[in-house]
Amino acid sequence: MNVERNYGGMKLDIQTTEVKTNDYLEQKIHNLIKKLQIFRPDISWMDIYLKSNDDAARPRTVVVRLGIPGGDFHATDTGERWKMILKNVEKRLIRQIEKKRTLLLKMAS
User: Fold this and answer.
1) What are the residues whose beta carbons fall under 8 Å from the beta carbon of 91, sequence distance 6 or more?
2) Architecture of the CATH domain 2-108
3) ∠ CA 83-41-84 to the nearest 5 degrees?
4) Out of 17, 34, 60, 107, which could bridge 51 as a Cys pair, Cβ 3.0 to 4.6 Å?
5) Strands 45-52 and 10-17, bridge-based pairing
6) Residue 55's pLDDT band (boundaries 50, 70, 90)?
7) What pLDDT, in 10s, does the model give residues 92-106?
């Protein structure tokens, strides 16, 4: 399944492989988007890839790419529960955003 939509001025592309999305999963994705927009309201686009595979230890994978002026961010995680995977991806992206902000502040001073 491939879903493209405009989400508050941002191009959102959600691609799934062997995953059936439901209201719960879509709500978690929208929560992720809202949280990231708090840290970077200038996100131009976001690609989200959801994959389910046969690996018993890590049956689900999430890959998120953010398009932001001045550079893109990327985070991946695998696990058993969508909620925890999305939360880990969110933390990784926020860490990257904060690190870049810190570097820019150091360069400006």
Assistant:
1) none
2) 2-Layer Sandwich (3.30)
3) 10
4) 17
5) parallel
6) confident
7) 999 999 999 898 888
- What are the helix (H) ranges across 1-109? 23-39, 82-108
Q: Do the beta carbons of residue 75 and residue 89 sit within 8 Å?
A: yes
Region 17-33 average pLDDT: 91
Cβ(32)–Cβ(90) below 8 Å: yes
- The identity of residue 109, as a single letter, is S
SS3 10: strand
Question: What is the rounded CA–CA span in Å between residue 95 and residue 106?
Answer: 17
